[in-house]
Each structure stands twice: as structure tokens, then as C-alpha cells.
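#struct-pred
JK: can someone run the complex with zinc ion? inputs below
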Amino acid sequence: MLKQLTLTKRERDCILAINEDSSIDFPIRLSQLSKKMKLKPPTVIEILKRLELKGLLKRESGMIKLTDLGMTFYNNLVNCHRILETIFVDSGIDLDKACKEVSSFDFMLDDESLSKLSSFVGRPKACPHGKPITYR
Ligand SMILES: [Zn+2]
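RT: done, C-alpha cells with the ligand placed:
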């Protein structure tokens, strides 16, 4: 991940929730996000404020959007999740379990570790779910 940024698990989940639903073409609203994260709106607002301070997100007239930095962070995060998931599943761990366990630390790795891990497993093009992994 981007080294200067330290995120909590909830902040990580929030970034994913904001961006992962490709059926939504327009920015997500607080009510949708709070439903998706199964957290009360005031709790979500606190998370959003912290993400805004970290420069990852912006709020405009009720809409919540990731900044360019937030998008970079999101892309690194999903790639990291998918590479770790590949390693777990290749080791014989059940996919659902792998996905859940990897989610608890996929946001803590730095870029260098991620790059080494991906080379170690032969730079896979997709995760065990079949979702694409991209390289710069
Ligand atoms: Zn997963």
C-alpha cells in the first residue's frame, strides 16, 4: 500500500464499499454506504471524515467519491487482496476462508512486499474468483 498511509480495517472496508459496486454509475450516498457497511450513519460519517483528512475521499453535495489518490489506493488494495487470495488458495485453503482472512490484513502490505509476493506466485492475471489482477 501507499507507505505514508495507515488505515484501519473499517476505513479499508469503507474504501471498498464506495468503489466496488460497479452497478452504481454515480457516486454513492451516505444512506447506501451505511446500509452496505451495516453501520449507523454517524459511524460511517466518522470514517468518511478520517478518509477525507487522509486525502482519499471527497464529499460533494451528499455524494461520496474517491480522489485520484483514493483510486490508486483502491486499485492497489484489490490487487493485494487478489494476490494474497491466490497464495492462500494455492496453499490449499478454502476460497471463502481465504477471502475472509486476507481481508483482515490486505491493506497493511507495502508496495515492495506486494510486488515480491506477486512475482513469487508468477504474477497471476486473475484471482481465484476470476477477478483481474493488474500490474503497472
Ligand atoms: Zn476475496
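RT: quick notes.
The longest strand covers residues 57-60.
The helical segments are 9-19, 30-37, 41-53, 68-90, 95-103, 111-120.
JK: thanks, will look after standup
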